[in-house]
Structures are given as C-alpha cells and as structure tokens.
Design goal:
The structure is a homodimer of 251-residue chains.
Chain A lengths: L4 H8 L3 H10 L6 E2 L5 E2 L2 H15 L4 H9 L5 H33 L16 H18 L2 H12 L3 H24 L5 H14 L8 H13 L1 H8 L5 H12 L2
The first copy, chain A, binds a DNA duplex (30 and 30 nucleotides) through helix 2.
DNA sequence: TTAAACCTTTACGTAACGTTAATGTCAAGC
DNA sequence: GCTTGACATTAACGTTACGTAAAGGTTTAA
C-alpha cells in the first residue's frame, strides 16, 4: 500500500510540513519520488514513522531518533519492548501528577497539609531529562541502543526519592574520587572505593553491568573532552586517574 | 516561607532561566525584589507556579496560561478540578499508546494483523490540539475559563472514533448550511436543521449548552473576521445567514 | 582576604516545526 | 478544451520556550 504525503500525514495525525521536515532532515525519506515529483511512502515508511512517533512521544530529540534508527544494530522488536517499558514509566509519572492534583485539591479545602515540595511531585521531568542527557547521551553513542533504551526507561521510572539518592551518591563519588586523587595511588583502598561507588552510580543507568563496559566507559572519559572536562572539574587529571583506578578495579 | 530563585527552581524541578523567563513574560513575578536586587518568591508564587506547571504539562501555551491565571474570574479550585479531569484524559490517551505498542509487538510476531491506521492509535494529540485551537480558543476568550477548561478536558478525552464522528458532523453541517443559504430563508426547515446540527456540533465542546451562549457565539461569527472568514468560505454572507438562522432557532 | 556559590542582565542560538508565498499537477465538471 | 479546487512542490521567514554564555555584583564560609 502506498501513500501520498497528505494521506500518510492524516493517518499518523501529523502535518505534511512535519513529513517534509523529516525528509529534509534525513529522518524519514519517502519510498520513491513519482514522475510528477510527489513523495510516495510505503509500508516500510509507515512502520518507521510509527517508531519515530513513539520516540517523539517519549521526548527523544529528533537527531537522536535519527541516530538510533540508522544504527545497523537497530532491532525493531527490542525497540518496541523499550517503548512499552518507557510508556509504562511515563504513566507512572502521570499517576504521580494525578495524585498530586488530588492532594492539592484536598489541601486547598484544608483537609490535609501539603509541603511546597509535595506540590511539585511528578514535575521532575526536566530534571530527569537533563540528567539523562548529560550522562546517558554519551553512553548511548557507545553502546547498543537496546541497552540504552532500557536504561532510559529505568531512569524515567525513578521516583523523586531515588533521584535524590542518586544525587547523594554522585556527591559522595566525587568527594571520594577527589580524596583518592589527592593520595595519588589508583590502587589505594580509597580509589577502589571510588570505583565501587562509580559502579553503583552506573547501575542507576545500566540494567546489565559488565566489567568490559565499565572499562570502555572509563576510557571514554579520557578520550572524550566533554567527559574529561566533567571529571577534571574535580581536579585536573582526575579523569585519567579514574580510568587507571578502574583498570585495576575491573581486573 | 520565602525562596530565592534557585531554591524555588530546585523544588519545582525547573531551571532558573525558566523562572526569569516567566518573570520577564509577566507570567510569574517574584513577591518582591530584595535590597541586593534578588528575586524573592513566597507562598502565593509557589501555588501559582504549581498551576503554571499543571497547565504546561497539559500542553497549554504560556500566553494562554497567562490569560487564564490573570483573569479576574480565575478560580483555583475549579482549575484544580479541571487539571484532574485533563490529566485523567491524558492518561487515557497514554493507555491507548501502551495498547498500541502491545498490539504492534504482537503484530511483529505475526500473532495479529494490524492496519496502518491502528499503528497510529493514540498519536492524535496534534490533531486534537489543532482542532481545539481553531475552535476552542475563540470560545475561551468569550466564556469563563472554568467552562472552557472543562471543554478542553472533554475534547482531550475523545477517542479517534468520536473525532471522526465530529469530522462527519462538521461536513454535514457545512453542506446543510450551504444548501439552506442557497434557499435564502433563515427560517426555513433546512436552515433550522443546520442550527440543530450546529448545536450538536457545539456540544462536542460545551458541557453546558445554553441558548444565550449560542446566540452570543453566532454574533461573534459575524463580529470576528476570523470566524466570518471560516463560514464565508462556504459562501459569502454565510456567517450572517447562520447568525440570522440561530436568532430564530434560539427564540 | 579569597574563592566559591549565588544573583543579576543581556544577548545570541536552538529545536521543531507553523505559516505564507509562488508555482506545478491532477481530476472532475461544464 | 477550459476552469476550478484539491493536492503537490520548494523556499523562506517566524514562533515558542527556553539553553547557553558572558560580564559583573553579592553573599558566605574558610
């Protein structure tokens, strides 16, 4: 079955402008261009557009969607499973919001007391997104999309409390790393503790921890200036120190 | 309790940039500016920000949020009730999406057959938004925000099938109106049928129909060039004809 | 005193389209 | 064949809601 641009736009519930933009962007090309210059879409494009819209619904930026779908490792089945997981997480967040409104209604009637923090329960999307973008994006580029999509779903389902725990863990990791760095020995007890904390930190993002992935990431910290910059904010040379410590830890 | 900008941003899960933007935009001003020039927010601002974030979560553009919250008719309790209603509607849409993924997974395994239309079930947000914007926005300006917010929630909860029914009804209304207009008599049976259809059409948007609201809207069709343009696409003079017919219908 | 964290304003840039204009193509009706 | 409306194209400007960076002032703790 073939579609012109408006037919496809109509069934998908989007504008023709969007489809043209996606073509221009290289995200979704038509199957062919007919003799009159019109875009013609087929079954394959329908399925690809569906995937795009799922990712879009989950807030994934278009350039990332493009990367994911273009990867030779892309697995449709796995992607669908991860959409399911992410959508369920999103529903949980929505339930938090619904619960928040219900509580706010009660508070406004004087039936309960609500803290200012509670009033924003469920509105942590941006913080989560930002955090994922800071840490997850780089990982996504290095590892299979399937794994990263599952990680994304996992992060999305974090409660605010878990998120705060992650923040604490991050702070503790950075402190420990700094102290170990000042000692100067990647094999020291303190350095190995930092590595343990780093592993724990990673398990907030990764479903399946593996030593080789950990080492690979550590090497990336040194190779990629953005990561180097992040750790070298703690102290200059800290990214390399962490890599050296992790080489020992993961042996 | 008072907050500096970063404290408020933190508990709300948004950026300080967002708060500054909202200040500049006139959406959320601080309670006061301290002697050192810093923005200081209080309880009232906390509650207002919560409202803003609920509307934002529901996809309401900032300028509309501003209008709603600035209206002297704004009723916090009613707004919270409408957020609840809208969030529940949004949850329903999310359920549709989840169901869609589940079905797509089965289809990809060859367990079921799925039409191309079904593959986009739940992705009708944009169409609904556009439709609401086209028809609902004008009504919002004229009638109480409470009523419109409920209408918004009602439209949001429409299934795709209901939406298609609405499209059919719109087409039928336009045809009938055209035929009646060609007859030239606002009191004719056909013209009164068009009015009946128009009422039916409105009840997709309005919880509470009233004759005076209907007449008011009809007058607006003539007064506002955007509405006049819409109906005069059917035939020049059609907006006035519809008003005249409705004046008779609503008597 | 110093440094880090926090605050301000200003200003440029961005993502993902929406809207408009100009023009070509197709199909149905006269 | 002609006309008209629907559908298609490309190009280009505009929009919304911030993100990011720069420059500089204020507060706090060591």
């Amino acid at each position: 079955m073939e579609y012109t641009i408006s037919r496809l736009a109509e069934i998908a519930g989007i504008s023709t402008r969007t489809l043209r933009y996606y073509d221009e962007f290289g995200l979704l090309s038509p199957a062919r261009i007919s003799s009159n210059g019109y875009r013609i879409y087929s079954q394959k494009e329908v399925d690809r557009l569906q995937q795009i819209l799922f990712y879009r619904e989950l807030g994934v930026p278009l350039d990332e969607i493009k990367k994911i779908l273009s990867s030779k490792d892309f697995d449709r089945q796995a992607a669908l499973e991860s959409h399911l997981s992410a959508l369920r997480a999103k529903r949980k967040q929505l339930d938090l919001l619904i619960s928040n409104v219900e509580k706010t209604i009660k508070a406004s009637r004087g039936e309960i007391i609500m803290s200012d923090q509670e009033k924003f329960e469920g509105f942590i999307q941006k913080l989560i997104d930002d955090n994922e973008r800071k840490y997850g994006e780089e990982a996504r580029e290095k590892y299979s999309n399937e794994s990263v999509d599952r990680s994304y779903a996992k992060l999305k389902s974090m409660s605010k409390e878990q998120y705060e725990e992650l923040e604490k863990l991050t702070a503790e990791l950075n402190e420990t790393l700094k102290a170990a760095f000042e000692q100067g020995d990647p094999g020291s007890e303190l350095a190995q503790k930092a590595c343990e904390l780093h592993k724990k930190w990673l398990c907030y993002f990764w479903d399946d921890y593996s030593k080789e992935a950990h080492i690979g990431l550590a090497q990336m910290y040194v190779d990629d200036p953005r990561f180097t910059a992040y750790y070298d904010k703690i102290a200059a040379g800290c990214a390399e120190f962490l890599r050296d410590a992790l080489l020992i830890y993961c042996k």
